[in-house]
Amino acid sequence: MKRNAICTSSIKLKHAEDHVRQKERRPGLKSAAGPSGGRRADDRGTRPAKPAPGLEKVREPASVPGAIDRPLMARTGERPAERVPVILESLGAGDFHLIDSGNGEKLEQYGPYRIVRPEGQALWQPSLPKQVWEKVDAVFTGDTDEEGTGRWRFPKEALGETWPLNLLGVDFYGRFTSFRHVGVFPEQIVHWTWMKQQVEAAGRPLKVLNLFGYTGVASLVAAAAGAEVTHVDASKKAIGWARENQALSRLEKAPIRWICEDAMKFILREERRGNSYDIILTDPPKFGRGPNGEVWHLFEHLPLMLDICREILSPKAVGLVLTAYSIRASFYSIHELMRETMRGAGGAVESGELVIREAGLDGKAPGRALSTSLFSRWVPK
Fold it and tell me: Model-level pTM?
């Protein structure tokens, strides 16, 4: 088994000696068009509205078959080489870093605000004294389950709903949502940094597909680096937020298609049309329910989603990136699935875990690693 270690200034890949831990899942959402398009729980029960100018709202013809009517491809050839286990680690970037964690909570810095949120993986005791944890700007209280609602408490003074942030040179809005999220998932910094490097080094405009794209930070990072981006999310609210981020980052003229649609239906149509992408990011929920009772289960539907994603990778593809949260499995589950999906494609599959390293009050004092998610990434070499 080949082990891999790569280091950059703030991102490290380390060997993992044990099976990965699981993380509480980000909330699943109702899909605007089907079970695979859901994204965030604060959009539950919303109905698709008339899209804003520049937003592609796709109406699927009745004759288009559902995802279950498309069989898995029979793959032949050698499986790609493997690099496992790999830990992708971040100390933070831009306006974010993890200060401390413990007692089922995490203390984070998001721009000017110091925030406390629930974190089920933090089984240990905090490193910093109690008074540090008490001198914060916002605390999420209420249901600690990621699919449960709660409210924010502001110990110092009432804060506005949004505030500006910057990661990897891209400006966007943080937002205090009722589901404890703030509009960005910083564990993804390592994937976004990798993507940014690939786009900048390609020597040609790469086409990037961002499935379950949420508030569009990854899409904006890709576009700022020079990519042509297609951003797909079933939540009109999330895409509206993403377009606000686009304006804040002064990327209104960047080549980004904002598509409000079920992710599975979108990639099925792209496959039929023969469209392809050089990089595909996919971050599906563990579970989602559509407005008409359709159900998405990651273990049941992920094989087909990856299979279709392979079919829409370009001949000169740079990578296919999968992130999975809160599933009761080792990373080997998605690792071996990715290798089977990419049979005959060559390259390598590297899989493991995304972690965020505590960085202390000043963002420069490495502490414990907080597990966040599983990942698997195919690259051509």
Answer: 0.83
